[in-house]
Design a protein that fits this description.
Layout lengths: L3 H13 L2 E5 L5 H11 L2 E3 L4 H8 L4 E5 L5 H17 L3 E4 L7 H11 L5 E5 H7 L19 H11 L2 E5 L3 E4 L4 E4 L12 H16 L2 H22 L3 H14 L2 H4 L4 E3 L1
Parallel strand pairs: 1-2, 1-3, 3-4, 4-5, 5-6
Antiparallel strand pairs: 6-7, 7-8, 8-9
Helix pairs in contact: 1-8, 1-9, 2-8, 2-10, 3-4, 8-9, 9-10
């Protein structure tokens, strides 16, 4: 993948301003919405079963994040995923802490059978979702992205979509092609909701580009580059988060061509 394609992806996101329907956890709703606004997308947090399916059918993209799932929101997630699939709307599954808790693990297994456009998680979550691991320590991974490369590729072939494994160097694969995205900052791991916001940005980029692999790589590159800018300006995690949002907004297509992409 040529880094010049990231310029086109960034311009497409600004031009189309995709509406991203977020069924996400209660801890991260604000930073997720703000991150979407910063990159030029539009957020919507519609998680009631009475509305979720209807809204998913008209949104540009859908994020399903099981971070603080309940029986009520699980029903909304099922409805939204099915409606997105029927409408041809791209949707992203973020299997937060899957593997360690039976309810969310069963739900995520059910959702993955609905063939998400993108699965985005850390190595432990992806391994657990694929039935090759038991999960990490809560939301923290106990595995390295390289440990999950083959499993991620197999899962991508199974869903017909893309699987992204976050870590010091992110791994993105469609089962045939694999791209690694370097860069970023350790302060992302000390900012509540940064990974969950990445799932929403992935949904936005996939909607804007119509290309799941390119869109997923572009989202990861955008987040990593913005983190590098923010880390240079921040004194610590408390000042990093607002600097990161500012950088997400400021980075243009030319800036994204500086991304550390490694194809394999």
């Amino acid at each position: 993948m040529d880094v010049s394609s990231l310029r086109t992806a960034r311009e497409a996101l600004r031009d189309t301003a995709p509406l991203v329907h977020c069924l996400t956890n209660t801890v991260v709703q604000t930073i997720t919405a703000n991150a979407l606004l910063a990159v030029g997308a539009a957020p919507a947090m519609v998680d009631d079963p009475a509305e979720a399916g209807e809204f998913a059918a008209v949104a540009s993209a859908v994020l399903v994040n099981v971070g603080t799932v309940s029986s009520r929101t699980a029903d909304a997630m099922r409805l939204a995923a099915r409606a997105a699939g029927e409408a041809g709307t791209p949707w992203v599954l973020d299997p937060v802490a899957v593997g360690g808790l039976s309810f969310r693990t069963a739900l995520a297994a059910e959702l993955v059978e609905l063939r998400p456009t993108v699965v985005r998680g850390n190595a432990s979550e992806v391994l657990a979702l694929a039935g090759a691991g038991s999960g990490g320590r809560g939301v923290d991974s106990t595995a390295d992205p390289d440990d999950a490369v083959e499993v991620a590729a197999s899962l991508a072939r199974r869903t017909g979509g893309v699987v992204a494994v976050s870590g010091p160097v992110d791994v993105v694969t469609d089962g045939e092609r694999t791209v690694r995205v370097g860069g970023g900052s350790v302060l992302l791991t000390r900012t509540t909701g940064a990974g969950c916001a990445l799932g929403a940005l992935t949904a936005a980029y996939v909607a804007a580009t119509g290309d799941p692999l390119l869109g997923t790589v572009a989202a990861h590159a955008h987040v990593a580059l913005a983190a590098e800018v923010a880390a240079d300006l921040a004194d610590g995690p408390g000042t990093f988060a607002p600097q990161w949002l500012d950088a997400l907004d400021a980075l243009d297509g030319e800036a994204l061509t500086r991304a550390d992409l490694r194809t394999a």
